[in-house]
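Here is an idea for our session: we take a single protein and study its fold together. Which protein we use is up to you, so please pick one and set it down. Once you have written the record down, we can walk along the chain together:
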Amino acid sequence: MKGIIQALILVSLILIAGCGKPVVDSQTSPNPVTTPSSVVTEPSQQQNPAPTENSKKMTVNLYFPDQDAMYLVKVPKEITVVDGAIVKAIIAELQKGTPNYGKVIPPEAKLLKASVKDGIVQLDFSKEFKEKHWGGSTGEGETIYGIVNSLTELPNIKAVQFYLEGQIQAEMMGHYDWSKPFTRNESMIKK
């Protein structure tokens, strides 16, 4: 029953976020991702916004590298979602990390824009996402699927397309093809 209630809350937040005009970040990159008016765009003015009357606490499943850097571990975390920006809240938590598991996103990276269209989350990161990444095929895979597996826990989210400073990249760290959206990867989750 608790899972059904959480799913209904998530669906409600996504529907609420989709109403009205999209919120566009005033700090977009010089080459912003083109987003049609039907896209839900989340604000990204700051990494940890102050709670407002429009904030809600909810528990989500996030994926972090295990201590052996072999798999991703599902970690339930309570997050604060401000103004319906659930994708932004999840990215902020993945960037903070957890003391028990490895990091997913370089702390210097900035989320410039997050939007959802047709079940695909579009994430536009600053250049530090690539430049400050620790590298290696394992580290790159943990970053991709830590983000993708966390976001695809949300209802109606099936994939993630990454951008760097407003542009889709063929590669970021040299081991994966970043030109197409990534889908969930269950084989990376520790059983």
About this structure: Residues 171 and 177 are 5 Å apart (CA to CA). The first helix runs from residue 2 to 18. The chain is about 25% helix and 25% strand. Helices lie at 2-18, 86-96, 128-131, 137-151.
